[in-house]
Design goal:
alpha+beta; about 40% strand
């Protein structure tokens, strides 16, 4: 049996290396390129928020510096196109630096290494244009003596558009209203401020996972705050965050707003309501057994209370608050001076009427001549605090 020849260029096998599929080493590499990417790639970024598509999904950029942003978008478009434009003989590939690629001399069959670098660009106006040099080394057959080593210049055009989220935001779209109220009273200024700060902090976190989680508008009402939200799930998450910090109850209501033209399905708008408790620190409350307390702290877990008869602090979770019937109680506040102290009693003088009265000596330490804040509930007087 005579010597075999490459059917493409005619070189003998002894000179052109072992034939692969009837081709010499050089012709095999030429006939079976691994880098099949087109010369031009088109991509776009949102002119409003800087987001771009990554594997078909809009994502927020890592950098909002325009130069860095354009290269981030162009690099991503190049890599995605490259992944889809490698020969189907390549089973796995790795992106490495140009220096690392230079040192690669051998690879397992079906593996490629890829390096790219921008060699020319103009990014002062749109479309921004970045030209890359892309180089790939690979091995696609075990008889190969030399690796495929291919270089190509690819130009990426980055155009401007408006992403679906910004398009909806700019069009005034909202899917849910988050209503923040307090039970039986308007929100205080401090509460409005604290809720505003909490919402601002949480919305960044929420929008990292839910791009439609934006706040379209915030409306201050006499009774509380309304947040117009891009998604119902973000309204629910915010309500939960407010409940964890302030306590309260969450409820939902739905309103039919129309029919989706594309799917013919009815579309609803959700109102998510969070009602924070009526209690505030400094409130005077009583339980159903008649014990009187000052509210020291209100949070998502419950109430911290100071028993005015014993001066002891206790914590009640929200279930216990309901079970014990704790509620605000009618009371009268006054100021009185300690005029004399005996082992069991304290004589007080009302600072407004100058009337004197006796009280059972409380657990707190008192000094003659000092003025104290007094609260009276159902005919019984309690020491609140020393007057500052």
């Amino acid at each position: 049996m005579g010597e075999r020849f490459c059917y493409r260029c005619g070189i003998r096998e002894s000179e052109g290396g072992p034939l692969i599929e009837g081709l010499c080493q050089v012709c095999y590499r030429k006939e079976n390129p691994v880098l099949l990417i087109e010369d031009e790639v088109n991509t776009e970024l949102c002119q409003n928020c800087g987001s771009y598509k990554k594997r078909g999904v809009w994502v927020d950029p890592q950098s909002y510096e325009l130069d860095e942003l354009i290269f981030e978008v162009a690099d991503n478009a190049l890599l995605e196109t490259l992944e889809d434009s490698l020969s189907d003989k390549i089973r796995e590939y790795e992106v490495v630096s140009i220096e690392e690629l230079d040192e690669v001399e051998d690879l397992p069959v079906g593996r490629a290494v890829v390096a790219f670098q921008p060699v020319d660009w103009h990014i002062e106006y749109f479309p921004a244009i970045v030209t890359y040099e892309v180089r790939v080394k690979a091995k696609t057959h075990e008889l190969q003596r030399e690796l495929h080593d291919e270089t190509k210049h690819v130009t990426v055009y980055v155009r401007q558009t408006v992403c679906p989220r910004c398009s909806r935001f700019l069009g005034g779209y909202f899917e849910a209203i988050l209503q923040v109220r307090a039970e039986g009273r308007p929100l205080t200024e401090d509460e409005r401020k604290a809720i505003g700060e909490l919402v601002e902090e949480k919305i960044d976190e929420i929008m990292r996972r839910d791009r439609m989680g934006f706040i379209q508008d915030t409306i201050e009402k006499e009774e509380g705050l309304d947040f117009y939200m891009g998604s119902t799930s973000s309204a629910r998450k915010l309500a939960q965050a407010i409940k964890e910090k302030f306590g309260g109850t969450i409820s939902e209501a739905y309103e039919l707003v129309g029919v989706d033209r594309q799917t013919s399905r009815e579309t609803y708008r959700t109102s998510v309501s969070i009602r924070i408790p009526k209690f505030r620190s400094g409130d005077i409350v009583a339980d159903k057994r008649g014990n009187v307390y000052e509210v020291e702290k209100v949070d998502g877990k419950g109430l911290s209370l100071r028993n005015l008869a014993t001066d002891e602090s206790e914590h009640r979770d929200w279930k216990t608050v309901t079970r014990d019937g704790i509620d605000t109680v009618e009371h009268e506040r006054s100021e009185a001076m300690v005029t004399s102290i005996t082992p069991g009693e304290v004589q007080m003088m009302d600072m407004r009427t100058y009337e004197t009265y006796e009280l059972e000596k409380p657990k707190i330490s008192l000094q003659e001549g000092e003025v104290y804040n007094i609260v009276e509930v159902k005919g019984r007087k309690y020491f609140l605090s020393k007057k500052e």
